[in-house]
Amino acid sequence: MSDSPSAWPADDPPPEPPIAPPPEACCGSGCDPCIFDFYSEEVQQHRLLLAQWQARQALREHTKPI
């Protein structure tokens, strides 16, 4: 994707957060990685994508023609 706001898609929804696995999804046997490790990675990725999306929105607002 281009860095230019005009090149960004008009429809730019925020990223969807990951769905947390239910507590019973963990078998409790000490798996490495555990299902909750995967979820933690997804949460970290979502935070990064959300921060990037928020930056795009702020820049888009800042560069709107008057």
TrEMBL record:
InterPro entries: Oxidoreductase-like_N, OXLD1. Residues 1-10 have a biased composition (Low complexity). Residues 1-23 are annotated as: Disordered. It holds the Pfam family Oxidored-like. Residues 15-52 form the Oxidoreductase-like domain. Residues 11-23 have a biased composition (Pro residues). This is Oxidoreductase. It comes from Chitinimonas arctica.
